[in-house]
Specification:
- The protein is of the alpha/beta class.
- Helix content is 34%, strand content 22%.
- The chain has a five-stranded mixed β-sheet, sandwiched between helices.
- Helix 3 links the parallel strand 4 and strand 5.
- The longest helix has 15 residues.
Length: 127
Amino acid sequence: MDLTAVRPTLYLKLSCNQMHLSHLQSGRELRLHADPAFSNQRLLVADFTAAQLLLQRAIAELLPKRFMRLSLPPQLLIQPLERLEGGLSQIEERILLELGLGCGARKVRLHLGAELDSAGVLAKLRS
């Protein structure tokens, strides 16, 4: 059984105080602007709680509870788009991974590089 057919697959592109979340199976997308802000001048995610609440809201909107009960927990690929000078520190990687896990995803991966299409997202999550 191919679990990607049952497990919701989400792709989060993260910029300063903005999230763009896509649900690959349905093609639905959300663009959210943070209020309160979760970024500051140095860190993409400086206020973890604000970022987590925004991501939880986005996931709840894209994946209604009835859908979540019928499927496995989502898998999530997170792509930071800003504040990447010199790469991510171990702490920044941990923040992003914990952000995804704290929102209910059971598999979370990070991607640094060009934006991906659906096939690219699935390939990154399989590796």
